[in-house]
From TrEMBL:
Its main location: membrane. Catalyzes the phospholipid dependent N-acylation of the N-terminal cysteine of apolipoprotein, the last step in lipoprotein maturation. Its EC number is 2.3.1.269. Residues 213-448 form the CN hydrolase domain. Gene3D superfamilies: Carbon-nitrogen hydrolase (3.60.110.10). It is found in: Cell membrane. The keyword tRNA-binding does not apply. It comes from Azonexus fungiphilus. It is a multi-pass membrane protein. This is Apolipoprotein N-acyltransferase. The keyword Cell membrane applies. The chain crosses the membrane at residues 12-39, 51-73, 79-104, 116-140, 152-173, 455-474. PANTHER family: APOLIPOPROTEIN N-ACYLTRANSFERASE.
Amino acid sequence: MRRSELAALPAGAAGVLCFAPFDLFWLAPLPWLALFFLLRRAPTPRRAAAAGFLFGLGFFVAGVSWIFVSLSVFGGMPWWLAGPATLIFCATMALYPALAGWTFKRWQPAADWRQMLYFAALIATVDWLRGWIFTGFPWLALGYTQAPPSPLAGFAPLLGVYGLSLLVALLGAALLRWRIGLPLLAACVAAGFGLRQIDWTEPVGEPLRVALIQGNIPQQMKFQPEAFYRTLSLYRELVATHPAQLTLLPETALPAFADRLPPGYLDELKALAARQGGDLIVGTLTGDLDGAYFNSALSLGAAPTQTYSKSHLVPFGEFIPAGFAWFMAQADIPMSSFTAGPARQAPLRVAGHDVAVNICYEDVFGEEIIAALPQAGILANLSNTAWFGRSLAQPQHLQIARMRSAETGRPTLRATNTGMTAIIDAHGNLSAALPPFTTGVLSGEVRAYTGMTPYNHWGNLGALGLIALLLLAARPGRRR
């Protein structure tokens, strides 16, 4: 393997600096410029695939190393198994940029500008593929680098995160020819800034007083019997001392089946929530008579009790893929065999508004979020990222939630166990947030929004259509 191909490894790792918490969004085209340069120089498709693989390996090892924390520190898996498992996962994700590299070289166009279009289309395509194959892992899709305050975030309501992946990759490739790249960059920044001035949706109704509760329950204590009553007492106290029209508690804040909680506990929460005609949404566990159990959000208060059950489950964390029971036997992850809830569930009608609830990882799937629109005026995410410790996972997840608001023109309320609990406005800007790994309540006001962005209408079809147009314009060459 040549030194030039090995350079792809640190180039990929540098790409993580473009994401939260570093937020060097202006740097985003440069790592992908390096990849474009390496693919052009590769003598064969196999060598181009190797460069793409090393780029991806550096990118994912640097960006999602928190998977090791989840498996080893909190999942109880021996380090000698968790380490290779994390590396294998990152290597599997690196196959996507490897596929882009192989395809680019196999049918590389002759003209420079066609190569730029072809490269950008391929990078956006593999980002999209990664978002749904084997249930999907769209974490760190390139477009997330352009969440607000990037001026390119103006394109989010039109093309979504994969459209932004396409745009950033195109800018990176174009910078190889600065006489093309710099004017294109200036034009995109100006257009994005102009698009950010457009209000695709509009507020409706009066401001809603909200309270988002961050319990900061250590993951190793969450399901311990000796901590159970302390947890219930903490949440009851925080709800009692922070009245609001809408109160949100984190994912599995009540770490037991709802029908097995101490008698009268849910009634207490309901009475506290209903003090001002308000409602409360809390993460808990629910089950049915067939023995299935769900990761759910339960509403309590003035409105009738409603339930949302998580439908997009996390492999290994919430369900065991076929053939991997032996692997999960090496870990100690409670409740790792959930049943998926229905694919389409109505928003919860609470505090006089329709709220589209999603749980933890579900908000990385933009097309699933828009299924609740236009009915829902507010998005709400309940998460427990304590599984990932003090890692990049929390700020990365907050950045993803901000992209969902920018795409949909809806505010997002995030109630998390350890961070990042936040209020995000309808443009994707961070209005307020609690410091991570602290116990507290984030109080504020939010307004529901009505109307539809182009992304709400078409989902990822807009980005996919643009990718197809670029592929047609690039006119890839004959098979080499």
